[in-house]
Write a structure and sequence with these properties.
alpha+beta; Aminopeptidase; about 400 residues; globular; 2 domains; two-stranded antiparallel sheet; single chain; about 35% helix; 14 strands
């Protein structure tokens, strides 16, 4: 049964605030990974010229279940944070998890098609996928393959990746003392999965349980009510702890707000709430204890020196205008079916017509940047958040 894990990644903001002096190089190495390189291929010497400090930097943020969750490394939250110092903007770009993308994981680099949320899981599983190119193997293999897929879809370079699992998500919200989330729609979800009860029989006989094997996931779920709980969220500003926020962003069975594209909006709402809380707190005294608890639950290819550089710019980034862009069936993609019957999302122009997405995204980047620059200059983080 396919699960739809939806997470938000406020951790990247926490890292930008805390990873500098509080984190020694040796400690940071526990979450920082490097791509696998081919020792037979000579690496070009780095350019003597310093990189342009005003160039855009893109970070792929991914969330996954982890632990004992089914499909534990399917990254059903995929969002790109694109920071453009030259234009003083930050764009949060949300991607549907069901995008149908070719991945070069077969022998001789031949591509096979997968939903984009499988890229991290495939890159992280070397025994099951032995024909992957070397760069998509090892500790950073999942992140590198996910970056490849997202670059193909969006047509922009992805510089870094950062992943966070369920535990890390909940912990990051709780350590902030909870967050105040703007719930845009009142909604109910009568089939939210209860952790640990995924295989409960709900008083059904073994024969009745076996008979559900041929049913669709949605049909089977309705026959096992003891596996699920009811969620209810009222519209308005709501205070949430980590567990509640996780339910808010994972919920997928609501008739009022159960679409992938609706969940993308909820992702943005939680990011905004987490960012605002981070800016309100003096978080540095909590850095050591917090990050120590997340070492097994977060991974990134941002090196310690790069993280230090990001931190040095964080005060400047606080004043940047923040805009959200989401690929939806209203603007750039459409729902479809694969040849083997899977529900998938493809460009409106057709399978593999990524240039149409590239053009659309560039238009969105230009228009949102122009709109942000047309507004009066802001000087405080709270004023920036009001622009969202």
């Amino acid at each position: 049964m396919q699960r739809h894990w939806w997470l938000i990644i406020p951790l990247v903001l926490l890292c930008l605030l805390t990873a500098g002096a509080a984190y020694t190089y040796s400690s940071y190495q526990q979450i920082s990974v490097a791509p696998t390189t081919d020792p037979t291929v000579q690496t070009p010497a780095p350019s003597p010229e310093a990189p342009d400090p005003l160039r855009p930097v893109s970070i792929l943020l991914m969330g996954y279940g982890g632990g004992n969750h089914a499909g534990g490394k399917l990254t059903d939250t995929m969002m790109v944070a694109r920071v453009n110092p030259g234009e003083k903007t930050i764009h949060l770009i949300s991607l549907p998890r069901d995008l149908w993308v070719g991945l070069p994981i077969e022998q001789y680099g031949i591509e096979s098609y997968w939903k984009i949320n499988a890229a991290y899981a495939i890159g992280s599983d070397d025994p099951k996928y032995p024909n992957k190119p070397l760069v998509y193997t090892g500790e950073a293999g999942g992140g590198e393959l996910a970056k490849y897929a997202v670059e193909k879809v969006l047509g922009i370079p992805i510089d870094y990746f950062l992943t966070l699992n369920f535990y890390g998500f909940e912990k990051s919200i709780d350590v902030l003392g909870g967050i105040n989330v703007n719930v845009e729609k009142t909604f109910d979800d009568f089939h939210y999965p209860i952790a640990g009860k995924e295989n409960e029989s709900c008083d059904k006989s073994p024969e009745e349980v076996a008979a559900t094997a041929t049913m669709s996931a949605d049909e089977a779920e309705k026959l096992f009510p003891c596996r699920y709980e009811q969620l209810h969220f009222d519209r308005g500003l709501r205070t949430m702890d980590g567990a509640t926020a996780l339910k808010y962003v994972r919920s997928r069975h609501s008739s009022q707000d159960g679409t992938d594209f609706g969940r993308a909006t909820r992702q943005r709402n939680v990011i905004v709430a987490a960012q605002k809380k981070i800016l309100e707190l003096n978080f540095l005294p909590k850095a050591f204890s917090f990050l120590a608890t997340l070492r097994q639950n977060v991974q990134t290819d941002i090196t310690a020196p790069q993280m230090t550089e990001f931190i040095s710019k964080y005060t400047e980034w606080q004043t940047f205008a923040v805009s959200s862009i989401a690929l939806t069936d209203k603007n750039s993609v459409k729902n479809s079916r694969s040849t083997n019957g899977q529900f998938i999302v493809i460009p409106q122009a057709g399978i593999d017509e990524w240039p149409s997405i590239h053009q659309w995204l560039q238009e969105q980047l230009v228009s949102t940047t122009s709109a942000a620059q047309a507004k009066p200059a802001v000087s405080t983080p709270s004023a920036v958040l009001k622009n969202l």
